[in-house]
Design a protein that fits this description.
The chain has helices spanning about 1-15, 50-60, 65-80, 105-110, 160-165, 180-185, 195-200, 210-230; strands at about 20-25, 40-50, 90-95, 130-140. It is α+β, with helices and mostly antiparallel strands and about 230 residues long.
Amino acid sequence: MSSKIELFQSLISRNGLNLFACGSIDKISLTSKSFSPLFKGAMIVGNGGADFWNFFLREKNVDHKNPIDQLVINFLEKKLKESGFSSTEFQRLYPHSDYTPPLLQISRHFNLSRPSKLGLDLNPEFGSWFGLRALFLFKEALPEIGPTAFKSPCDQCTLRPCLTNCPGTTFKNGNFDLEDCSTFRLRENSPCDKKCDARIACPVGKEHQYSKEQMSYHYEHGLKMLKKLC
């Protein structure tokens, strides 16, 4: 099992899917009818920095409706099989059309991220410049593989540039307010439609900051979803 996982990690990291963890499903709270209770292992995959974006640009003709999700599904499932896993051994739980698992809770459980003042999670290496791309369940137990535990970088930050660089009132009480953030983003000609100045101001993982093109892509898609919800 460990050799299969090592091969899988090697295959996907070459294309920027460089955040990885796996282990027992027992300590993760998942309430869904979309998977069998017989599953014993969980595996979460993500990307940090810009390498995955470069991979996406090369492959973006896969699916014009939701290209990143479809690219991830096709690529990861193919690499799992190339690593020796059969299609009957695992089930994809995210991306999923009917159910969104508590990804941040799972990411924190596996020490991929911690909460921050930004309202976004932070990774110790990549800061906020990372994405959680897929979650798989396995019928067999998986070895505990992942980063070591760490404290939120915000605990050591004294300047708090995120709070002072937000053009809105999201941090008016010193803490992130999702409703204020959403309302400000939905304003006509909002300066936050394609970027987040508070996020850009955060010093953690600054060297891994997304390009203007990548940032615009994610924020435009996020804004479309926000408009649908509101």
